[in-house]
Amino acid sequence: MIKRLILMVAGWMLLVVGAAGLFLPILPGVLLVLVALSILSVEYEWARRWVSAVKRRFPLVDRKLQELWARR
């Protein structure tokens, strides 16, 4: 239960910081938003749909990330 709460809070915080990073030149906004959506996709259906849409749009990146995770 605590792990789930920590992941949700971290996901929402990264999403807010990532949204700010889309407008601020200092923060990598797109990267933070993608990480936040990945974390939130465990809990929320809307985030899962966004992650799957990104995977469909960029299949090469998805394959490379899957290879990296498989090596772990």
Explain the overall architecture.
With 72 residues, this protein is mainly α. It has one domain. Helices cover 81% and strands 0% of the residues. The chain has four helices and no strands. It has helices at residues 2-21, 29-40, 45-57, 59-71. Helix 1 runs antiparallel to helix 2 (29-40). It is globular, with a radius of gyration of 13 Å. The mean pLDDT is 89.
Write the layout of secondary structure elements.
Blueprint: H1 2-21, H2 29-40, H3 45-57, H4 59-71
Helix pairs in contact: 1-2, 2-3
Brief summary:
This protein has 4 helices and no strands.
The biggest sheet amounts to:
none
Contiguous runs where pLDDT drops below 50 for at least 5 residues: none
What is the distance, rounded to the nearest whole angstrom, between the alpha carbons of the first and last residues?
26 Å
User: What number of structural domains do the residues give?
Assistant: 1
Reading the helices and strands in chain order gives HHHH
Count of individual helical segments:
4
**Gyration radius, rounded:** 13 Å
Instruction: Report mean pLDDT, rounded to a whole number.
Output: 89
Approximate shape: globular
Task: Give helix % range.
Answer: over 70%
- Report the sheet-strand fraction: under 5%
Helix/strand-derived category reads: mainly alpha
What's the count of strands? 0
